[in-house]
Structures are given as C-alpha cells and as structure tokens.
Amino acid sequence: MKTEHIEVVDYDSKWVNDFNQIKGEIEEALKDLVLAVEHVGSTSVPLLAAKPIIDLDVVIDRKDLKEVIFLLEKHGYIYEGDLGLKDREAFRYEGKEHLRTHHLYVCPQDSKELKRHLAFRNYLRKHPNTVKEYGKIKKEAAKLYPNDIEKYCMYKSQIIEKIYKEIGL
C-alpha cells in the first residue's frame, strides 16, 4: 500500500490493541509456522508521534516461506516480493476494513532487516528524549511534505542515521 497523504499524529495507546487484533488473525492463518509477530515501526514506541499505520514483522523459519506466502494469500494478503530489501517479504491486502491500516512483512528469523527493526524500536523505547525529538521531526516532515513520501523520509533521515549510529547499525 503506497502512502498517498502523510499524516503524523500523537501516540495513541489503542495502537497496541490494533496490533494485537492483526497479530491474532496472522497467527490464526499461519498457525505453527509463526515464530513471532513483532510490532515494529513508530506505532510500537510509546509516546512517539506516528503515521497511524501498524507495522508488523512476522518471523518465520526460512524454509517455510512458500507455505507462508500461500497461506497469507488465502487470507486476503497479496505478495509483493521483497521490494528491494533482502529477507523482508512485503504484503498488501484487500478486504480488511475491520483492521487498522497496516504494513505486513515476513522475515526469516536471521533477517538483517528484522534485527534492524527490533534494534531501532528497542532503542527508542529506552530513550524518551530521542522519542520527543524524533516525533517533532516527523510532525515537521509531514507538515512540509504531506504528499511526498520520499521528501518526508529524507527530512527524517538525519535523526534516523543518528539513531543507527548510536545502536551500531
């Protein structure tokens, strides 16, 4: 799903419930093929302003990828490939109006992208001053570039790179 209009809002504690609802459906669809479902991205960090879209990384065993793709497609997800990021398979969906808008990714447990998502989330959860600074920058970016996701991302890139440096990525 391509972002058409960028809106960054204050943190909403309902995002945890939204994540859990989506996670429940994914676990039901994939049963024992799921090793974990991780809430990643800005909505996973308490008090961080974010686009109100849930990001999920479904962690699987690499050997199960074909079966996972098949089962997710059976449950309304459309496989989009890795979109240029190795070991992170993207899915869009149709007919999930009962769920919060979300981005679903499937990652093998040894995925560098998964490790990067978790390290970034965990760093922010432990650094409230960085959360405030990052949230402020995200809101500024959304105001400046409400219809240009590339410029929005570029505006945030300096603080993101600073955080990556802090965590050694």
From TrEMBL:
InterPro entries for this protein: GrpB/CoaE (IPR007344), NT_sf (IPR043519)
Coiled coil (residue ranges): none
Domain of life of the organism encoding this protein: Bacteria
Name recorded for this polypeptide: GrpB family protein
